[in-house]
Design the sequence.
């Protein structure tokens, strides 16, 4: 039963732009729906907590920035399973896939210990923000509740990576949409209180997320044992200890992948930490802009995941020419859609911001930042889709170096210089939170250009090797 869909994937080979876009869209839309369901967690948290208090909204912005940095960095390492499993799936090596999944669980066990310690003791990171005592205490409460949900999140990432690798993103989507349906009432109960539970504010949405993450992990474990597409891999039919050679192979790809994710996210995290010095209102406006950017990001991310799956399967099946064409068409599709999104958001930004907050001061702070996001997003789409295509080739070290130079050097370093007007020569419109966002946009231009050039070289090298 698990073999028929694989034949369908291979039979769909085409070199036309329209044909490739259809193939990519067929895998991308379930990823997009699922990712939008997950990002809706953040949107719902921001909207609900924003109506609870400005202090809790600021704590949410600061705390979520730290959590996302830890979560993305660790799950980025586990995401190495996707290109590895996709190439094995294209090569029809089912037993090897099962072994890689078991090794990924051992790796997740180590990573969850590291992540838990960072989240439960976030003091050193909060010291950088120089946050007021009330904001600091609220943020610590938020992060400590999330720390207990991290192990479940890492386990679910393994399920997600494998499902995407074998071209079954709907299996992930259904669970994520179901989680969203639970999130709204659970958030309402825990944030605002009721039925004997006191109002928890921002930490309430963290408790809701942790509960849902464990429910998702349990559902994923059940799916591994009951869904036909996973049966040939025999994931739980064999016990194994860590195999250091396989662990080394996962880490060889996973560490640079995790670092690239970490660099990308921490460039935003440290923006939030530094912007916290500019006041609660400015930080709240930044949180709205960042949340909007995250929502927009889900479409190119989904296209990148779909493109990576198809490229890796083509490479595993010995079809490098098809892989190169799919990569190029995936990037083109993501950038074209991003241009349309940017134009729509720019026109509708007053309406969008009003949906986030009733506070006029926060809305004024958010308005110019969201305008920058509409341009920022186009280059964000370019870099993330290209990066995913490179990961399908099992290439991650050079992209990580490109990220470090662009996002940390130009984005964060340049943002600090602009935001705080280090040299004292800048006009007012280029300083403060706007300075950070302008520098971050410039960094994505550099990252996107560097990654697309490198993808061309890597794909050409594969073609020559095949020839």
Sequence:
């Amino acid at each position: 039963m698990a073999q028929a869909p694989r034949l369908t994937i291979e039979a769909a080979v085409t070199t036309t732009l329209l044909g490739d876009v259809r193939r990519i869209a067929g895998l991308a839309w379930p990823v997009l729906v699922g990712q939008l369901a997950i990002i809706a967690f953040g949107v719902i948290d921001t909207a609900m907590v924003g109506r609870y208090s400005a202090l809790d909204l600021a704590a949410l912005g600061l705390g979520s920035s730290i959590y996302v940095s830890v979560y993305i960095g660790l799950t980025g390492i586990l995401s190495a399973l996707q290109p590895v499993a996709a190439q094995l799936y294209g090569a029809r090596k089912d037993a090897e896939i099962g072994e890689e999944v078991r090794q990924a669980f051992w790796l997740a066990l180590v990573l969850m210990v590291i992540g838990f310690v960072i989240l439960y003791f976030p003091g050193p990171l909060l010291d950088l923000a120089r946050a007021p005592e009330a904001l600091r205490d609220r943020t610590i409460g938020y992060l400590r509740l999330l720390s207990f949900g991290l192990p479940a999140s890492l386990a679910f990432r393994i399920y997600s990576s494998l499902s995407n690798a074998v071209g079954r993103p709907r299996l992930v989507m259904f669970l994520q949409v179901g989680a969203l349906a639970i999130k709204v009432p659970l958030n309402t109960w825990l944030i605002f209180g009721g039925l004997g539970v006191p109002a928890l504010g921002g930490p309430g949405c963290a408790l809701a997320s942790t509960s849902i993450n464990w429910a998702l992990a349990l559902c994923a474990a059940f799916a591994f044992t009951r869904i036909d597409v996973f049966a040939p891999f025999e994931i739980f039919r064999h016990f194994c200890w860590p195999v250091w050679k396989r662990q080394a192979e996962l880490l060889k790809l996973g560490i640079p992948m995790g670092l690239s994710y970490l660099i990308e996210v921490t460039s935003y995290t440290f923006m939030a930490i530094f912007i916290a010095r500019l006041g609660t209102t400015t930080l709240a406006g930044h949180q709205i802009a960042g949340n909007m950017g995250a929502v927009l990001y889900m479409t190119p991310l989904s296209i990148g995941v779909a493109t990576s799956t198809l490229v890796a399967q083509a490479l595993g099946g010995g079809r490098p020419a098809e892989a190169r064409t799919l990569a190029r068409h995936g990037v083109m599709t993501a950038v074209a859609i991003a241009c349309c999104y940017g134009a729509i958001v720019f026109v509708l930004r007053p309406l969008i911001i009003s949906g986030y907050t009733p506070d006029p001061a926060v809305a004024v702070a958010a308005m110019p930042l969201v305008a920058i996001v509409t341009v920022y997003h186009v280059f964000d789409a370019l870099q993330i889709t290209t990066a995913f295509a490179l990961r399908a080739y099992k290439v991650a070290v050079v992209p990580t170096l490109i990220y470090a130079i662009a996002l940390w050097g130009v984005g964060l370093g340049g943002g600090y210089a602009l935001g705080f007007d280090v040299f004292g020569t800048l006009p007012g419109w280029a300083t403060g939170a706007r300075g950070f966002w302008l520098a971050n946009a410039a960094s994505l231009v550099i990252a996107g250009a560097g990654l697309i050039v490198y993808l061309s070289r890597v794909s050409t090298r594969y073609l020559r090797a095949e020839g």
